[in-house]
Amino acid sequence: MARIETPKRVRGTQDIFGDEQRRFAHVLATFERVRALYCFQRVDIPIFEATEVFARSIGETTDVVSKEMYSFPDRGGDSLTLRPEFTAGLARAFLTEGWQQYAPLKLATSGPVFRYERPQKGRYRQFHQIDAEVIGAPEPAADVELLVLADQLLRELGVEGVTLQLNTLGDAETRDAWRQALVDHFEAHRADLSEDSLTRLAKNPLRILDSKDPRDRPAADSAPDIDAYLTPAARAFFDAVTAGLDAAGVAWTRNPRLVRGLDYYRHTAFEFVTDRLGSQGTVLAGGRYDGLIESLGGPATAGVGWAAGVERLAMLVPETSPIAVDIAVIAEAEEFHLPVVALTAALRRSGYSTEGFVTGNPKKRYEKALKADPAYTISLSRMNGLPHVGERGRRATFHPDELRAIIDPITNGLA
Ligand code: ATP
Ligand code: MG
């Protein structure tokens, strides 16, 4: 008979197991805890949206929309896209679900996102993000709150060696003037630019500043900073953000080359970066996107937020240990199978993590149980013709009276 071939895991996807899974879960649990400390409300939104939700809010000229989206016609012929990020879907929900009435709205979410990229360490096609957004708050206090939240999350995860890089993209007036200065500068250096950056020059000149192509670096590094173009209002906004960070004790460094490509990005742009993950060093990134909601046909609405890669954070958190087994319950003879089922259930209902050993060779069950490294073992066997309840371990760790009240009613009745 022909051998049946096992289907392969799809390239760029992951089966998250063991220590890796525990770190992953630890990142999500810590995010859930910390976002609640900042009174951010959890929301859950669809994994797929109409393609135009992303095309219009992320922008056709970005890598994400032009090269990385998983888009497909569904059976009804509508073009759908697996979400490549959360912000666009949250903005769509803000408009379609009438969430305007709750503005300003502090939102947190997490889950899988999809991008067709070249897979490598820290870069997948299905990966996971945690995400925090404040929609409807135009004040710098919202930017500060989001950054302090991100900083506390990283601290609580015990992630070390991460720096917050901060920049401002100014207001509309600032940005137009700076953009023109950049176009003039890069036009004068056309001959030195990569092909990608020549395209960017036409569509998205700010993006040349953060090009990773070494050919672009001399022109990018010598380009004018935004500072000379900041209006007094834009400078005041940035000063308010940095003063807030200083007041909250969050360290930051200025990176004048940090940009977000789209026209509606304003003011704050930031990344938390580490040198411990090679070229996948950005763990958390975001900024202010006043204007995004308008690009989806909504009213002028301020917004600011960030997203972080769960896998990249998980790679940075300390090693975890497997679930601790409080109690192992062993049936050393077949006749004790049901009492062990009863005991195991009773112990678990009382909050003890319990593993029952009722299958396999009865004589080997005890050895098997010890391998689980329980704090306490209870074994039911027959000795000299009588049922015997053996107990061993650090019962002091538990509440001895409570334990007796669970165990005795079940074992007393054994014939
Ligand atoms: P990069 O420059 O690494 O491609 P990006 O600018 O595309 O990142 P964002 O869109 O800002 O990333 O997404 C926020 C975070 O999501 C990133 O900082 C990173 O931690 C994570 N991330 C982005 N793409 C991937 C991916 N393909 N696999 C795993 N994590 C990712
Ligand atoms: Mg990317």
Automatic annotation (TrEMBL):
CDD domains, A to Z: HisRS-like_core
InterPro entries found in the cross-reference section: aa-tRNA-synth_II (IPR006195), aa-tRNA-synth_II/BPL/LPL (IPR045864), His-tRNA-ligase (IPR015807), HisRS-like_core (IPR041715), HisRS/HisZ (IPR004516)
Family matches, as SUPFAM superfamilies: Class II aaRS and biotin synthetases (SSF55681)
Family: Belongs to the class-II aminoacyl-tRNA synthetase family.
Superkingdom as given in the UniProt entry: Bacteria
Reaction it catalyzes: tRNA(His) + L-histidine + ATP = L-histidyl-tRNA(His) + AMP + diphosphate + H(+)
Catalytic activity, EC: 6.1.1.21
Keyword Ligase: yes
Predominant localisation class: cytoplasm
Enzyme category, top tier: ligase
Name of the molecule in the record: Histidine--tRNA ligase
Quaternary data: Homodimer.
Classification via Pfam families: tRNA-synt_His (PF13393)
Record keyword Cytoplasm present: yes
An MF annotation (GO) of this entry: ligase activity
All residue ranges annotated as the Aminoacyl-transfer RNA synthetases class-II family profile domain in the record: 1-339
Alphabetically ordered keywords of this record: Aminoacyl-tRNA synthetase, ATP-binding, Cytoplasm, Ligase, Nucleotide-binding, Protein biosynthesis
Cellular compartments annotated: Cytoplasm
